[in-house]
Amino acid sequence: MELTTVALLLLIPLLIWRIYLRLKRMLARQESLMGKHWMSAVAFSVFLVWMAATMADNVLAVSCLGAGALAGAWLGFFGFKTTHFEVFGTRVYFTPNLRIGLAVFMLFAGRMLYRGVELYMSNHLQAHQLVSQKDFVQSPGTTIILGLLAGYCAAYSSLMIRWRQAHKPAPEPEL
Fold first, then answer.
1. Of 20, 68, 100, 113, most Cβ neighbours within 10 A?
2. Which residues constitute the domain of residue 31?
């Protein structure tokens, strides 16, 4: 076994731990900003449509992307139902469901890490097997997880927008 492979295998758990800690901080209590919710809802929806359009000739990939998006939207709905809201005057804070959010984002990070290791290992094999970019990106495992992440983020952000529009914060008292 090469030294670079050993180093890679030793660094992967550290990388996973750092991703976990960063996600845990990201999914903590935060201020609800309408611009952020709108940007997330639009960007992830456009990303899903763009991915489906680029994979139009691969029915399995589009099906997996759609199934992942549906599952992600379902998880986004249940994650939203368990979100804790706090209103302080004109400011609204929310704490998303940590378990669902971590599961979705860690699945995505794990899949990307797996694809990176797979690419690294295929470059170091004796018999070089060329993997096309189309096969690399459009594999069912990758597209279902991309759909899951995009569907979760788009649905959660859309539900946050609806909640914020239904629960307007109280105006500042005049002095």
1. 68
2. 27-166
